[in-house]
Structure formats: C-alpha cells, structure tokens
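# nightly structure sweep
# worker-07 picked up a monomer target from the shared queue
# config: single-sequence mode, recycle default, output format = structure tokens
# input follows
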Amino acid sequence: MIRFLAISSFLLLLIFALINLGNWLSEPANKPVQADLIVALGGGTGERDQMAARLYKAGYADKILITGIGHSSKAGLNYYQHPRSLFFLMQGIPDEALMFDGLAINTHQESINIAALMTAQHWHSVLVVSVPPHIHRINYCLEVLFNNKGLSYRLIQSDIPSWHTGRWWQEPKWLFFCVSEAIKLVYYAVVYGG
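# output follows
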C-alpha cells in the first residue's frame, strides 16, 4: 500500500509539473521600462523582431542589438543585408540604431556578449525579447552574470497568438519547444552551473 501511494504521488506530481511547465518556462516576464538597449534574440519566426521594433518605436531605448545572425558574415553578407536587419530598416528604424552579435551560437553566449557590450558602452539596463517559453532559460543565463556586473535586465515576451501557457502541449510546435527547453535547462545547469 505504501509503495502504491508513493508511485501515485510521484505520478500526480509529474502530471502537475507537466501541466504547469508552460507557466514555469515563461516566467519571469516583465513589462517594458526605459532602458539603454533592446535585444532581439536569435531564433523564432520574426515575432522577436516585431516586438523589439515596437519597443524601439515606443521610445524604450535608442539601440537594438540583433543576435543570432552569425551565418551572415560567413556567407559574405553585410549584417545590414540580413533579412532581420532589413525588417528593422523597413520599419523605419535607422541603421545607426542597429547593432549585431554575430558570434553567439546559444543563449549562454548571447548573455555573455550582451553583458560585455553593455559594460563596454557603460550601459546599465536592457530589455531582452524572446518567445514566452524561452524566458526562464534566458533568466537563468542572465541572473548571476548581470547581478555580478551591476547590470539590470527585463525579459519581454513577444506576442504569439498560438502560444497558450496552460495548453502548451496541444500545439506540436510548442510541445517540442517546451520539452526542448526543459532539456536545455538541465544541460545548462550541468554544464554552466548556477
């Protein structure tokens, strides 16, 4: 009987954890405030860039850092010729407002590069834009690094109509994304510590 109760309790906890995975992964999201920099993280299908452009147009910061475009330089392209850069330029954002991180290949490296850029520019605050279920891992990467350097950040979720925090498993794209994020968080904890 005790074994049955233990297994049942474990299964109930596992089900509860899976149901709430979407909430956990998408926290701690913030509302935007005035900052020195807006970062549109790499990946996604343009929703991160759309939110970054809206934040810029609303006057939250004067600069946008675009990450995840390292393959442009390898293809011999100017960063301003990258489709993501062209999106911002077509939104009326001047080219002098755009900055690029072509070196980072994952969220951990993006975090390090953002902190280094902010330190070099004597900036103190940043708005980091990504999709909701990526927020927890970004926070994991930024928290200690930024606190140690006296920098502040706010995590801003991009708007995605297909994302539903409480029903993440019903959409195949988000099912895969959330499971992948959970695995990456374990990997980051093992490789990068915390």
